[in-house]
Amino acid sequence: MKWPFLFSMASLELPSRFPPAETVVKILHVNPIPEMIEIWQESAVEFERAHPRVKIKFEYLDHEEFKAKLPTLLQSEDPPSVFHSWGGGVMLEQIRSGVCRDITNVIADDFKSSFYPAGIQAFMSQDKLYGLPDSVGPIVFWYNSELCENAGVDPSGIKRWDDLLDAVEKCNAADVTPIAVGGYEKWPLHFFPALLMVRILGKNGMASAYKGDNAGFAGPDVVKAWKMYKELCDMSPFQEGFQATTTSEAVGLFHDGKAAFHLQAGVWVLGMGRMYAADKQGLPDAKLGWFPFPAVEGGKGKVNDIFGSVYGWLVSKDAPEATLDFMESWLAKELQSKLAAEGLSIPMVKGTADAIQNPFYKALALEVNNSGWICVAMDQLLGREAGRVFNDEAASVCGGAKSPEQATEAIENSWSQNRI
After folding, report:
1. Residue 253: which CATH number?
2. Residue 248 sits in which domain range?
3. Pair 230, 125 in one domain
4. What domain count does the chain have?
5. Is the pLDDT reported for residue 141 higher than 70?
6. 249/153 Cα distance (integer angstroms)
7. What is the mean pLDDT of residues 190-204?
8. How many CA within 13 A on the CB side of residue 314?
9. How far apart are CA 24 and CA 56, in angstroms?
10. Is residue 413 part of a domain?
11. Which of 43, 134, 218, 403 suits a disulfide with 412, CB 3.0-4.6 Å?
């Protein structure tokens, strides 16, 4: 018996009548710089033109909102495909929680090799790759040359910690605010004790403290770093009301010419900082300069040991395949060179340093190339809980609520319970 057809064969041509659903690649970032977003969008439009059923969507959260919301977003039914990462212990926690995708075998070897090895290593765990590097942000001291001159300070002579303390004293005597800092969010304050630790302990000493050797982060050299930080805080080095000043307000204050120094990454100071100045222009290059965080007498660290962040991108566990295709064009040398040429980034892609036109970025890129070690910011290195404690203690010691010994003990106690 033959069964009659109830519809024509033409009605089976479903792909033409019902095209596949659009694939959306969502990229969650923390970058507010319009010029950089514009270049990213150009790359997205070009990719979408070649892949008509793919939509690239950039979504922005500021730093603190990002940190607060990301854990929930990654566990939601609509997580980002790719999300910003500073690497370190926070990344390891995310990997172990199962929200990240192992991309070791789906990224072409020649593309992996286009990045500096340190950049790739920053997004690996147990020999597996979970993300790709983007750029690097060394934390250095920026200065306003006009205010320094008014205070009788020669920034080129600040080589050691005592030189910095002397500069702070001279600024105060000249009624010039020495250092602008965003104390409200606490992490900018953590730069000071963390960098002193890097200069005193050096690479091997920091690794030993991380492992818990010699009392770990409550050891004598760590306490020494925090005592030196307390000495600085006792000199009233920051602007009035710094505890209530946000990071954005602090860099704006620096660019408004209201502080001689600002300890921050170049990408933040040169790119975002001018956005937050009252006139949206900020200090001209002619009034700006930078120097590495000073050495500590007898310290094991090197002045070209870099403290800061290797910025990058982690891939979510259920990210669509188009995500990886887009990353291979978005993070490629051509686009990264464009960002470098515009003075928007110090990329972790080989060969992009030649494209850098901005003399500040060029000098910072050279510093990165000459460095043998990049220490990740402590609030990322130690994971969310111990990193939060580190930031809290930096604020407490600066405000006089805790002693250096109490602070380091609290950090080690938290780290010993949450060691990654």
Report:
1. 3.40.190.10
2. 138-306+376-418
3. no
4. 2
5. yes
6. 25
7. 98
8. 29
9. 6
10. yes
11. 218
Number of Cβ within 10 Å of residue 98's Cβ equals 10
pLDDT digits (tens, 9 = 90+) for 363-382: 998 888 888 889 999 999 99
Does residue 150 lie in a domain region? yes
Tokens 């990408």: give the residue.
267
Confidence of residue 16 (pLDDT cuts 50, 70, 90): very low
Amino acid present at 250? A
Helices 383-399 and 404-418 meet at what angle, rounded to 10?
Answer: 170
289 Cβ contact list (under 8 Å, min separation 6): 142, 143, 145, 155
Closest to 201 measured CA to CA, from 188, 187, 214? 214
Single-letter code of the amino acid located at 202? G
Kindly state whether residues 296 and 169 are assigned to the same domain: yes
In the chain, % of residues over pLDDT 90: 84
Asked whether residue 249 falls in the same domain as residue 322, the answer is: no
- Helix axes of 187-211 and 383-399: crossing angle, nearest 10 degrees: 120
Looking at the fold, whether 327 and 413 belong to one and the same domain comes out as: no
Amino acid found at 128: K
- Paired tokens of 201: 């302990």
- With respect to residue 119, please indicate whether it lies within any of the assigned structural domains: yes
Residue type, 328: E
Name the pTM for this structure. 0.88
The residue that leads in pLDDT, 21 or 99, is: 99
Assess if residue 14 is contained within a domain: no
